[in-house]
Amino acid sequence: AFANANDPIQSATRSNGFVIFDSGYLDNAGVAATAGQGPAPAPHVGTLTTDTIDLSSNSLVMLEFSNYARVFFANFQVAFSSDGGQTWNDTILVHSDGTLGINQASDNAERVQYNVSSYIGGSANAMMRFIFDGRPGNANGNGYYFWCIDDIEILDLPDHSLQFVTNTDGAPPHDIIFNNDGLASKYGIMTLKQARPISFDANILNFGGVAQSNVHLEIDILDGNGNNVQSLTSPSANVAPNGIADYNIINTTSWTPATTGTYDIVYSALSDSVNGVDFPAPRDTFRIYVTDSLWSLDFNTFDNRFGTDDIGADNSALAVRHELMNDERLFGVDIWLSNTTVAGGLVEVTVYDTTGFDFINGFPTTALAYSQHTVTAQDVASRVMRVPLADANGHPVYLDHSTTGAYYIVVTMFSNADANPINIRNSQTFSQPSTSALMYYTVANPRWYSGFTGSLDLNAPHIRAITCPASNAAACMSISIDEVDLSNDIKLYPNPASEYVNIEFGEVNGEMDIRVVDVQGRIVLESTETAVEGTTVPFD
């Protein structure tokens, strides 16, 4: 009933079969209206248990398998027995790092590894049990949606191996810190005028069977052409097998962007042995955008949608925090939508300083700006709506960094009793501090919240401030713009095209009016898009 566009697991040997616990189908038999009336209604538990496995000659072993999971309320576990199933004393919680919030899915055919030496290493009667536990829940339900498994292997544990992992206190595998303050907001799209020092940290697990010396983090910052702008290295630590060098040690000094552009941040976990030559080093890459006028919490990733479907049909709201390094002029916002938005709803956009805000009473001060916008069919088609903002005198909103220093842009949503839902894109790339994004929840006990506990469903909504491209706020009162030849900075493909054209932006940022004309010059389609360097927009 809720499969939507979710494919079967795309594992290497899917053609000869895979295992699925289909919690949704077992609860509703494939029909949303018959929840609880399927062949095995939730709450339910499913297990898949191996025969005994002789590991008497293998004391250092790891479990590796492909999986694909989507969750509402459920846990995914693997239990272990070293005595042929008489006792099951050890259990691994798969996806325990908090990456799967409500209605979220893992990567399709994600390959996971676990050091299971202490559980079944050296046992002549080892057994494993895969468990879908659909009992965790609340008043809204239990179970759902599925867990697919394939290509299960028990392998010798390598001597030299490092992994980025979530720490035991919930610290993420990789983190990015702005302005040397762990409580400061993180901006995936940031104007050069508001640029600030950025540092990096990580948690590195010694996954191998041998102690690792000089374990450290290396950060390489690459520009849009792949050139190394700067490299940063953390202090190092000696780490025993299955030990973690955490973010308290594995953290770098800072880098401050000096020019606009797209920057790739490459995290590498290294040691004397795991150096990328003798043994492969794990590497993960994230991207930030430094623009002249766009500023947002999101990292230009669309990980989930969040809006009236989640926090209330009418008068629910999202707020994003902007912390200033310099004075600013705010011209408006771009609000990026998911395809579950239906034209006809209404948004109200307001700007407040942070003075006196609390979660119960909200904003006690007068709004610095207010604007309404009805969601149009064109907004839904282009997936973005632009809402201009002005102060009482009709000027762009002046934001003073020396007094308040931080402001909230609030988007209040009205979906006409859910007839016209409004759902906004959200990024989960890096977990934001609790006050960076807020929600006004109207379903029960209406008030402000920092999000749902243990979930990144609300983290970095795509609510992008449009600010002054000049180096100072006063200059924004009179700006002329010269025509610029963009033919070398924009790529269009495929060509020829039948249904859509991809518009790929090179070194260009800002608002663009796009018109499709026929050979006689008549306008066929017209749209406004926001260009972010290094991104691609499909044009229908």
Q: Helix count?
A: 4
Average predicted local confidence, pLDDT: 91
Secondary structural class:
mainly beta
Looking at the structure, what is the overall shape?
A: globular
Helical residue percent? under 10%
Give the strand content: 35-45%
Indicate the low-confidence ranges by residue numbers: 478-482
Give the biggest sheet.
Answer: 6 strands, antiparallel
| Beta-strand segment tally | 40
Q: Give the C-alpha Rg.
A: 26 Å
Distance between the termini: 28 Å
In words, what does this structure look like?
- 38% of the residues are buried.
- The strands form 10 sheets. Strands 1, 3, 6, 7, 9 and 10 form a 6-stranded antiparallel sheet that branches. Strands 13, 16, 17, 18, 20 and 21 form a 6-stranded mixed sheet that branches. Strands 27-26-30-24-32-33 form a 6-stranded antiparallel sheet.
- The chain is mainly beta and 540 residues long.
- The protein contains 4 helices and 40 strands.
- The longest helix has 6 residues, at 23-28.
- A hairpin with a 5-residue loop joins strand 32 (437-441) and strand 33.
- Mean pLDDT is 91; it is low at 478-482.
- It starts with 18 loop residues before the first strand and ends with a strand.
